[in-house]
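Hey team,

Filing this mostly as a record. A colleague (T.K.) asked me to run one chain through the structure pipeline before their review meeting, and I want the input and output archived in the tracker in case anyone asks later how it was produced. No errors, nothing strange. Just documentation.

Input sequence:
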Amino acid sequence: MTAKDTTRRLLDVSVDLAAREGYDNLTRDGIAKAAGCSLALPTVRLGQMPELKRNVMRHAIKLRCLPVIAQGLASGDKTARKAPEELKREAALWLAAR
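Output structure:
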């Protein structure tokens, strides 16, 4: 597996984890456990927590993962606020429907 593949897998796992357990509850340890990798790998591939969360939110936006985007918007995440307006509306509607 290439470094790019590893990063993408960690991002996919992170978005899935954030959707299930909450974006604000995302931790490197949780990501490592869900991905079945060393505790250091999420930091090496995705950065320290502020950068890691930015990378995860960017990936959630790319994937159009409404639960994660909605949670980011609700918590005031700067990266979520930069999402396209249409996507932010869809995420707000998703959140309101819960």
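Quick notes for T.K.: The CA atoms of residues 29 and 77 lie 21 Å apart. The chain has one domain: 3-97.
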